Amino acid sequence: MASQGRIKNRLLAALSPADFAELADHLHSVVLPKKQIVYEVGSPIDYIYLIEEGLASVLTMMEDGASSEVGMVGPEGVIGVSALLGGKVSAQHVVIQLPGVTGWLPAPARRCSKAIRGSVGCCYGSSRIC
User: Fold this and answer.
1) Model pTM score
2) DSSP 3-state of 35
3) In which order are the strands placed within the sheet that holds 55-61?
4) Cβ atoms of 35 and 95 closer than 8 Å
5) How is 73-106 classified by DSSP, letter by letter?
6) Of 25, 27, 34, 109, whose CB has the highest number of CB atoms within 10 Å?
7) How far does CA 41 lie from the centroid of its chain?
């Protein structure tokens, strides 16, 4: 992964230099192609993704099999935020809509998630979620 000064993900860029240094050894780059399924409903959240380039759709699946887009994540956010809050399985279906480079962290790296929560505050809009 690039040095913090070259990071495009806003959450990673907002980390203090000390917190970013703590994450750097755990942070890896991967290219996610269009239509790549990141999570399916009920699947384990093994990785936390911090998009550098590209866009992901977050979908809720209905009982009849239909889906509804409930969110989009780009370089401003994180995919797998529930893992930062202790979640172990995905409640949504997440698919890549625009391909690009993504940083990923193993979800069990709790000190990594603590660094993200502590420096950024995990704010969702104006509501604090952690």
Assistant:
1) 0.78
2) coil
3) 37-39, 93-98, 55-61, 67-73
4) yes
5) E-TTS-B-HHHHTT--B-SSEEEEEE-EEEEEEE
6) 27
7) 16
- Kindly report the number of other CB atoms within 10 A of residue 6's CB atom: 9
- Cβ neighbours of residue 72 closer than 8 Å, sequence gap 6 or more: 55, 56, 57, 58, 97
CA–CA separation, 54 vs 86, rounded Å?
Answer: 26
Residue closest to 23 by CA, chosen among 128, 127, 116: 116
Over the stretch 19-73, which tens digit does the pLDDT of each residue have? Answer: 888 788 888 899 999 999 999 999 999 899 999 999 999 999 899 989 999 999 9
* Encoded tokens for 75: 């370089």
Please state, in angstroms and rounded to a whole number, the distance separating the CA atoms of residues 15 and 120. 6
- C-alpha 40/C-alpha 122 separation (Å) is 23
In order of their start, the domains of the chain are 4-123 (2.60.120.10)
From 58, 49, 56, select the one nearest 99 (Cα to Cα). 56
SS3 42: coil
